[in-house]
């Protein structure tokens, strides 16, 4: 049983390190080229994956990676899920999209109010003037 557990941990560590290496952008790879890290991870159990995880990836770069746990959570240069270089943001995280959405909502409300005033027979008051008492 201990042999099986050791083998499973070794395989899991290798798969994790290999996936992390493949997904890492080339400018964040340290030491040797990415293809050499992949060969090292695959051919040398324990040593290759652990070496990759400790020294192969630049985890202090502006990509906002938070170590191993950062691979699964929101990442960004500000540490709060902000924009990562070249990656699109989700609509609810994009300040430009939210600003445009707010402007669209306000414009539609103004147009709806103007239509309802016209339908009530009051006409459209001149901009900047107050309605007659």
Automatic annotation (TrEMBL):
Membrane spanning residue stretches: 35-55
Residue span, Cardiolipin synthase N-terminal domain: 13-56
Membrane topology reported for the UniProt record: Multi-pass membrane protein
Biased composition annotated in UniProt, kind: Basic and acidic residues: 96-121
Subcellular location: Cell membrane
Pfam families: PLDc_N
Protein name as it appears in the record: PLD nuclease N-terminal domain-containing protein
UniProt organism field: Brachybacterium hainanense
Lineage: Bacteria, Bacillati, Actinomycetota, Actinomycetes, Micrococcales
